[in-house]
């Protein structure tokens, strides 16, 4: 157990042997949202809405995740459109691109189809707002974190990004509010076949204030913050890893082609059958995690853990998710004993080893050692959707394009800011159309 000092406060890093007793404690004792709101400087980024109920998580768990197979064809249609409008013409020639920047807009479009629905997901103003809300929020977070907390109230409102976030919120309300009201009016008139999207499910499941159009718009921005850049980073890392280890292009493409041909094509529920791709993504995330720490929680009460460890009330604590998956005692054996070696099919080999492993070790599976999506009550509810979206997009890219680094270039070093890890967004790769 040790403390990490950030300028805005201390975080206690505790052993993951405590995960199982902590993950099921009531949220009045151990709270994930308190830690998120602190991490995203909620008062200044408007992220404090996360403390105002858990409507998005309920909707994702109860409606989106069970409907993943049904949403896949909608996402596929939006992806085909997005690739046509966003990707460059690279037939018969190699073209240099910032794959991160291209993917950001593709992910905003494809996830938008399922989150905000067909009326909104192609509106340029929405795409701009959904993407820039996160960038403006991080500009606030990273500036304020340089300062001690007692200066935040003074400095926060002086930051241009503070006002840009509020402008993004006003735009989201202006775009989403009329759609909510129109859907409700049509429903009242009995002439509306409900859309199958998160906006509609939030309209249906929201209770009291939660269902107000302005609140729904704000929640949609928070979902953009939770899902667009994170998903883009995972796909970018995977492409950077593939270009650094090009011997894995063929096995992944063979699996994709085999499954598509033998299981009815992209419109059928084939994505869970991409087992090598799943394993590759999990290993890529192990090597390039979203953050060095995870399972951020705040103790709302003093916690007495089973081995007499006491965590005082008010403590922000977390676990060293990156170090855990680089610990040779913990990481399951792979082709090498060295945890620094990238072994993308180690997880699918483990899954094939025994029937009880069949559903373990997947990209979206969390356990006490695999914490990059959190674990337990506050674990990322969107991870199954993210997994589907990443495989859909990456699968299409691998079959449609070749990728490589420019001559003399290799994998760009990851970038970091406090605990967060990012792929270099400006790094360039070359791409060429294959078919
Ligand atoms: C690779 C992509 C993603 C990563 C790495 C990621 C990671 C995380 C992590 C680490 C947490 C905190 C878990 C905890 O405290 O135990 C979280 C929370 C959450 N995630 Fe994700 N996530 C991803 C994609 C998504 C997507 C696509 C959605 C939405 C559809 C989503 C929705 C949420 C929500 C609603 C929360 C709860 C906190 C909040 O509202 O911000 N995530 N995610």
From TrEMBL:
Heme binds at residue 380. Gene3D superfamilies: Cytochrome P450 (1.10.630.10). Its main location: membrane. Keywords: Heme, Iron, Metal-binding, Monooxygenase, Oxidoreductase. One of its GO terms (molecular function) is monooxygenase activity. Its cofactor is heme. One of its GO terms (cellular component) is membrane. It is found in: Membrane. It is a single-pass membrane protein. PANTHER family: CYTOCHROME P450 (PTHR46206), CYTOCHROME P450 MONOOXYGENASE AN1598-RELATED (PTHR46206:SF6). Belongs to the cytochrome P450 family. This is Cytochrome P450. It comes from Xylaria flabelliformis.
């Amino acid at each position: 157990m040790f403390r990490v000092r950030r300028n805005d406060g201390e975080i206690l890093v505790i052993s993951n042997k405590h995960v199982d007793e902590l993950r099921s404690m009531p949220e009045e004792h151990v709270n994930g949202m308190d830690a998120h709101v602190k991490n995203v400087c909620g008062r200044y980024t408007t992220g404090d809405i996360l403390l105002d109920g858990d409507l998005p998580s309920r909707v994702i768990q109860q409606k989106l995740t069970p409907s993943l197979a049904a949403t896949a064809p909608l996402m596929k249609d939006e992806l085909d459109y997005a690739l046509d409008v966003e990707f460059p013409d690279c037939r018969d020639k190699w073209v240099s691109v910032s794959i991160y920047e291209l993917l950001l807009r593709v992910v905003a479009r494809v996830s938008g189809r399922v989150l905000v629905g067909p009326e909104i997901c192609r509106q340029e103003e929405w795409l701009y707002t959904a993407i820039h809300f996160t960038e403006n929020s991080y500009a606030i977070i990273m500036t304020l974190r340089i300062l001690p907390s007692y200066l935040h109230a003074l400095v926060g409102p002086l930051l241009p990004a503070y006002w840009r976030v509020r402008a993004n919120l006003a735009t989201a309300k202006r775009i989403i509010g009329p759609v909510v009201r129109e859907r409700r009016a049509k429903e009242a008139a009995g002439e509306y076949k409900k859309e199958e999207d998160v906006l509609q499910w939030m309209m249906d499941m929201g209770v009291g204030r939660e269902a107000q159009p302005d609140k729904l718009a704000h929640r949609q921005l928070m979902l953009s913050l939770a899902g667009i850049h994170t998903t883009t980073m995972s796909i970018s890392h995977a492409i950077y890893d593939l270009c650094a280890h090009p011997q894995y292009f063929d096995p992944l493409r063979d699996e994709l082609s085999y499954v598509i041909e033998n299981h009815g094509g992209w419109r059928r529920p084939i994505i869970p059958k991409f087992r090598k791709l799943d394993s590759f993504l999990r290993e890529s995330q192990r090597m390039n995690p979203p953050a060095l720490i995870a399972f951020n929680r705040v103790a709302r009460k003093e916690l007495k853990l089973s081995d007499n460890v006491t965590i005082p009330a008010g403590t922000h604590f977390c676990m060293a998710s990156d170090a855990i998956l680089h610990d040779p005692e913990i990481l399951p054996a792979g082709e090498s004993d060295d945890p620094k070696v990238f072994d993308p099919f180690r997880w699918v080999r483990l899954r094939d080893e025994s029937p009880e492993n069949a559903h373990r070790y997947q990209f979206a599976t969390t356990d006490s050692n695999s914490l990059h999506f959190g674990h337990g009550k506050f674990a990322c509810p969107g991870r199954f959707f993210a997994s589907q979206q990443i495989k859909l997009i990456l699968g299409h890219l691998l079959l449609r394009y070749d990728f490589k680094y420019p001559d003399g270039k290799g994998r760009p070093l990851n970038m970091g800011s406090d605990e967060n890890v990012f792929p270099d967004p400006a790094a360039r790769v070359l791409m060429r159309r294959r078919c």
